[in-house]
Amino acid sequence: MTEAPAAKARVLFVDDEPRVLTTMRILFRARYEVFFAESGAAALELLKSQPVDVIVSDQRMPGMTGIEMLRTARELNPNAMRILLTGYSDLNAIIGSINEGEIFRFINKPWSNDDLTTTVARAVSAARATQAVAARAGDPNAVAAMAADSASGTPGVLVLDDDPAVPPKIQAILGGDFRVFGATSMDAAVTHLEKEAIGVVISDTRVKDNAVVSLIGTLKQHRPELVSVILTERADAGSAIELINQGQIYRFITKPIHDSQCKIAVNSAQKQHQRLAQSPELTRRYEVEQTPEPPPGTATVNVGLLERVKTLRSWARRWV
After folding, report:
1. Which residues carry this modification: 4-aspartylphosphate (predicted)?
2. Are residues 124 and 67 in the same domain?
3. What secondary structure does DSSP assign to 107-169, as a single string?
4. Among the listed ranges 157-161, 201-205, 311-315, which one has the minimum average pLDDT value?
5. pTM of the model
6. Domain closes at, from 88, 120, 144
7. Contact present, 190 and 216 (Cβ < 8 Å)
8. What gap in Å lies between CA 66 and CA 12, rounded to an integer?
9. How many whole angstroms separate alpha carbon 115 and alpha carbon 12?
10. Domain co-membership, 170 together with 131
């Protein structure tokens, strides 16, 4: 008996410029069932009756920004993958999209058609993996609703920061429910990861004048159940975009540390780690781009250190 062909994935494009939507129609109509909206409000109205697999939205639109729309879209359709098109650097908007919209990718305008089609295809694949997990659970919104249940304890929290006072401060904020390990260098951080069961990494964007994006990205590639939170006072739009595209960071919080914000972020990150450990298929939602080669003369993470990251064992089985 011949199996019925799989239904086309459903992709919603949101942009206030009709010419952009025309371009999207030409690029994607042969591959997917496509939907279009010229405003955030129109997109949300459509989502009330049309579940989709992927949402691709412009950021700067009149009336409602892309991030505002995606935040509400996440409530209406939590399993959909979310991609944001942005043509300008607005740090607050980018941080908001990380913390509230859980963006799969940022794509800069003007975009490369090849990059855009590849990114949408990856998002579709991730959405299908999510649906498989939800189907097994018998709940179409299982990814959002799945309880984080740890049978044998709570994995540790690794804090990577130049300032040795930061880890004990975070330990004091989190209390006795968490084991916090501190590291003031990337080498020390990897040593902890080799020896301890770590579920969440909290890191500044730079340590010892080296950007952490290569380390965070390599960790996500080889330990996809690990969840990263960025804690920094040196935020900039470019590094935030790199950290989501190449490292799929989970939350972005700024110094000075606010107790409640920190505790909420780490609790949420720990639950996210446990979800990913329980259902490895969900890590497809957080696949990262390959880290590009740095420009000559740029301070980079030691190659040997990244090779150690690639050999890290997964501790996931200990915690599910």
Report:
1. 58, 204
2. yes
3. EESSPPHHHHHHHHHHHHHHHHHHHHHHHHHT-TTHHHH-----SS---EEEEE-S-TTHHHH
4. 311-315
5. 0.78
6. 144
7. no
8. 13
9. 18
10. no
